[in-house]
Predict the 3D structure of the following.
Amino acid sequence: MTEGNEKKTLLDFKGMDFTSLSLEDRIAFSVAQGVSETGMQPDELIAMNDALSMLEPNPTILELGQCTGTSTRFLLTYVLSHSGTLHSIEQNLRRDFFDAMVDLGLWDKFTTYVNNTQTIHWQGGIDFLLIDTEHTIADALGEYCRFRGFLNKHAIIGFHDAWEIPGVRRAIEIVQEIDEIKEIARSPRGVGFGIRLFKLMEKNKGCYHQRPESIEEM
């Protein structure tokens, strides 16, 4: 399916069995031409796959930020082969991505919410959270805090644009101060804007309370 350096189009995948694609074909499908732009680079998808491989079967995955669906397609091929569930929140649905997924018969295989990530009503646990919206510290950190209470034990959190965008880098630093998270995968520096993925080890890192001796100590 991915012979040579020729980049495939989404139509090349029409009629394929998406439950049993190789990693190579999953990447080719995710970066295929047919939408207005490509999001993540292959090395970023490989890093994400390394993290996905650590999940238990039947995971619940929540993607924040869909754009033209590079990561959406990659995550979808994962859940289709692991009996998982994919949810994706996108405030500005891209018509080219929607039309392509309908044409491939895949639009009804996951759930898209056309909504604001920080005000949407949410319920249910999350095993894998991908944060990839506007990349300011208010977005990246705000979205982590918005969904952190729903993260299951040892959930995995991915931050895209983690190398090159200051707001995302700072958000990760603050998250590391709030909770104990262990980095489990990353893309090479200089490839795209970068992705870093972490496993949640413990919430409320170093949360110890000590009563002050006097008002002056407060």
About this structure: Residues 36-205 form a domain with the Rossmann fold fold (CATH 3.40.50.150). Strands lie at 60-64, 85-89, 111-113, 126-131, 151-160, 180-186, 195-202. Helices lie at 23-30, 42-52, 70-82, 95-103, 137-148, 166-178. The chain has a mean pLDDT of 91.
